[in-house]
UniProtKB/TrEMBL annotation:
<dbReference type="InterPro" id="IPR058039">
    <property type="entry name" value="At3g05675-like_ankyrin"/>
</dbReference>
<dbReference type="InterPro" id="IPR011333">
    <property type="entry name" value="SKP1/BTB/POZ_sf"/>
</dbReference>
<comment type="function">
    <text>May act as a substrate-specific adapter of an E3 ubiquitin-protein ligase complex (CUL3-RBX1-BTB) which mediates the ubiquitination and subsequent proteasomal degradation of target proteins.</text>
</comment>
<comment type="pathway">
    <text>Protein modification; protein ubiquitination.</text>
</comment>
<keyword id="KW-0833">Ubl conjugation pathway</keyword>
<dbReference type="Pfam" id="PF25553">
    <property type="entry name" value="BTB-POZ_ANK-like"/>
</dbReference>
<dbReference type="GO" id="GO:0016567">
    <property type="term" value="P:protein ubiquitination"/>
</dbReference>
<feature type="domain" description="At3g05675-like ankyrin-like">
    <location>
        <begin position="246"/>
        <end position="410"/>
    </location>
</feature>
<dbReference type="InterPro" id="IPR038920">
    <property type="entry name" value="At3g05675-like"/>
</dbReference>
<protein>
    <submittedName>
        <fullName>Protein binding protein, putative</fullName>
    </submittedName>
</protein>
Amino acid sequence: MEKTGVAKPCRLGDQSTSDITVHLRNSDGRPEIFYSHSSILVKKSKFFAHWCSNPDSGTCFEIHCSEYNYDHHVNFLRLLYLPAHLLLDSLESVKSAVGILEVSVAFSCEEITRSCIQYLEAVPWEDKEEEEILKAVSQLGPIAMPIISRIQPVDIRATKNVFVSAIRFATSTGGLFPPFGDELRLSAQEQVEYMLGEDEDTPLVTADDEVKSVVRMGLSKIFSSFEKQLSSLLLDFDLVSEAADAKILQTLSDLQWMCNILPKMDLMKEFVSNWVDISGKVLGVTEDNKLDYVMWGLKIKLIEVTGKVLEAVGYGNVILSTPCRVRLLNTWLPYIRKLKPLLDMKYDEDSTFPYKMDEDLCQSIEGAIVSLILALPSNDQADILADWMKADQVRYPDLSEAFEVWCYRTKSAKRRLVEGLDKVGNASAFDLSI
């Protein structure tokens, strides 16, 4: 009995066994010929199966390629000749897999399409690649769900859990967490700010009582650490190390970060109230004679945080009683007025001096103070403005705008009072004449 010979596997480009040619026209218009086999094309691609079933199709198939997708077509043809179990390992990059996927979808090759989807679902993407991936899989339906599930919006519960964990991470308030390095903690703070960006789900998360409770706990912890570190500065000042200095600066930076996220959660009032309460103690330490010519970094950072508080109150984002607003101004205005020329003098003496109130900070603080003053009762405005004009340093902050408005309003008020008295007098005279 004659033995049946084992058929040799077909190879792309084998002219001796090829019964169909695929012509890829490159960007120059010149075709590159790929000697192929209808048995492979028909088995792997529904498109070619339909094309080959037409008696008039011939033995040559031409594809016009762009400069972008030429290589993807070549790779697609090569993959048609690979066994299914080798397809996944043959994919080398996200860009290549996306390109091959688009060609595979066009030629209805389910085997290669599934392999491309499996590859893309498993490997990391760059941000710029995500749009291309979405474009390629948008019309694939259920088969593309492994990819879509990576980027589809999560439910509110999952978002809340991630946000709460990030807050605890950023404020180091999670009891089960190990101590975090500054880089990881700062990264968590950046991500919390990003999560609080414009998003329709954000208000639902930030309004949650548990979320607010975790944020309040983090704020309380940071304030408590700051007060302890501040109090320790004067206990044994000679032993204060650079590490301790850096630590209190980091805590102040954490408070400054809190000023960025709390307004988005309607919790800034709690920060402002705490800051007003401890302001006297803070300045009691920083204005001690021992710190007269040291710890400039601490002093400038205090001004930056206070600037956030002044903006919140001055522009009406946080509503405080009149006595609290007056106390806030009377506490910090003299300090800001004293510190600014000292920092300028240090910078003039040494241009490498790193602690200086930059122009943006100066303008924001000055604008907030003017706005805050103009919202006070006239007598309180008068007291603050009189104190400002008596001071040696009147150039900063410049309160001349507040003074001009106060003068105008005072005259207007006096005019309205006189007009009111005249009306009352005229009415009385009219009554007497009757």
